[in-house]
Amino acid sequence: MSHTTRLALLGPHGLDAAATEGFVSALRIACGAGDVAAVILRLAATDERGLITQVKQVAPVAQEHGAALVVACPGFTGDLAAVAIRGGADGVHVDKPRDLKDLRDRLRDGRILGVGGTETKHAAMEAGEAGVDYVMFGGLYPDGAAPDAEIVLSRVTWWAEIFETPCIAVATHVDAIGPLSATGAEFIGLESGLWLPVPAAVGQAQHALAQVPAR
Predict the structure, then answer these.
(1) N or C, which end of the chain is more exposed by having fewer CB within 10 Å?
(2) 3-state SS assignment for residue 29
(3) C-alpha distance across the termini of the chain, in Å
(4) Rounded distance, CA 72 to CA 91, Å?
(5) Which long-range contacts (CB under 8 A, 24 or more apart) does 116-123 make?
(6) Distance (Å, rounded) from C-alpha 34 to C-alpha 138?
(7) Full domain range(s) for residue 46
């Protein structure tokens, strides 16, 4: 059965209040340049009120283009679900989670729960069993290091062939978009370095997806 692969845009790690306005301006252009299904907003940890303010700045821009806004904030010890809900976001993204069932119970009414940082197949399967809406493979670590591209491709291929839970396969280089899409992954994630400096590059990524034969 064929499917249409859509794009997910990853924001930079540790986006703070000072950089949010510039991010919003770039995001508006990027969302208008391609078929963006989701934006993963990776915020710097601060107080809950500050995070909610940032989410409120970003959410309308993504949503007016039909993209879901999913909020991540590694290191934040407060209530990320409350931040997302009060800020008007569509859901939460967590890495290496421990309390997925609690989050799943709280994120009802169509709100999204996504998971990344699944270093092993077992961890990915546990996330799927907990009822997440997607599992993300790849993407830069907060320190800027990238996981091995071949391992990411292998993991995405395995997941897309076996499991019904959608996955986001993250490309850190343009050349990775085609092979990752060819796995049958529902979403191709674009690291911030691929689109944030030149938001119109999302259109080029969309073109690359169109060259991949449908599965």
Answers:
(1) N
(2) helix
(3) 6
(4) 9
(5) 116/72, 116/168, 121/155, 121/158, 123/96
(6) 21
(7) 6-208
Q: Is residue 55 part of a domain?
A: yes
Number of domains forming the structure of the chain: 1
Q: Can you tell me which residue has the tokens 């010890």?
A: 77
Q: Are 199 and 29 in contact (CB under 8 A)?
A: yes
Q: Which two tokens stand for residue 118?
A: 């699944």
pTM: 0.95
Q: pLDDT tens for the chain, 215 residues: list them.
A: 346 899 999 999 999 999 999 999 999 999 999 999 999 999 999 999 999 999 999 999 999 999 999 999 999 999 999 999 999 999 999 997 777 888 999 898 889 999 998 889 999 999 999 999 999 999 999 888 989 999 999 999 999 999 999 999 999 999 999 999 999 999 999 999 999 999 999 999 998 898 887 66
Tokens representing 164 are 């019904």
